[in-house]
C-alpha cells in the first residue's frame, strides 16, 4: 500500500510549548520530539499532533466553518474521561450526547481548538 495513513496533524499556536504542555497535562499525551519551537505530541495509540508557532491573527471559527473543525479523542471509558476533563476545568462547548450508540462531547484546548471526546462501542468499517 502506497498511502498508509495520517502521520500527524499540525496546529499553529501563539505559544507552542504551552499548548503542548496542555495536551500532556490534560490528555496524557507525551512530547516525543521538539525542534526550533515546534513540538510533536503523541497519544497513547501513537497518533501525533505537531504544534508549530503561529503567525498573524486567528480567523474566527465555529463548529461548521470551512476547514478542519475538530480532532476526535477516543476514550475507553466516556464517563471517567468526562469527569477527568471536568476536574481539569476544560471548556466544554456542548453537553454530552448519545449519537447512534456513541457517547460524545465537544470541548476546547488551551488555544480554543475544538476537540471531540468520543467513546464508540462499534468501530467504523
Can you walk me through this structure?
The protein is built from 2 helices and 9 strands. The protein is globular and about 45 Å long. With 125 residues, the protein is of the alpha+beta class. It is 18% helix and 35% strand. The chain has 2 domains: 7-55, Signal recognition particle alu RNA binding heterodimer, srp9/1, CATH 3.30.720.120; 69-125, Roll (2,3-Dihydroxybiphenyl 1,2-Dioxygenase, domain 1). A hairpin with a 5-residue loop joins strand 3 and strand 4 (48-53). The model has no long low-confidence stretch (mean pLDDT 95). Strands 5, 6, 7, 8 and 9 form a 5-stranded mixed beta sheet that branches. Strands 1-4-3-2 form a 4-stranded mixed beta sheet, covered by helices on one side. It has helices spanning 16-27, 78-87; strands spanning 9-13, 30-35, 38-42, 48-53, 71-74, 91-92, 97-99, 102-108, 114-119.
Number of helices: 2
Rounded average pLDDT: 95
> From N to C, what is the helix and strand string?
EHEEEEHEEEE
Tertiary shape: globular
The residue ranges in which pLDDT falls below 50 over 5 or more consecutive positions are none
**What Rg do the Cα atoms give?**
15 Å
CATH class wording of the largest domain: Alpha Beta
Terminus-to-terminus distance = 18 Å
Class by helix and strand content? alpha+beta
Biggest pleated sheet: 5 strands, mixed
Estimated share of beta-strand residues: 35-45%
Q: Please, what is the CATH homologous superfamily of the largest domain?
A: 2,3-Dihydroxybiphenyl 1,2-Dioxygenase, domain 1
Question: What's the total number of strands?
Answer: 9
What is the fold named in CATH at topology level of the largest domain? 2,3-Dihydroxybiphenyl 1,2-Dioxygenase, domain 1
Tally of domains? 2
CATH architecture of the largest domain: Roll
**Roughly how much helix do the residues carry, as a percent range?**
10-25%
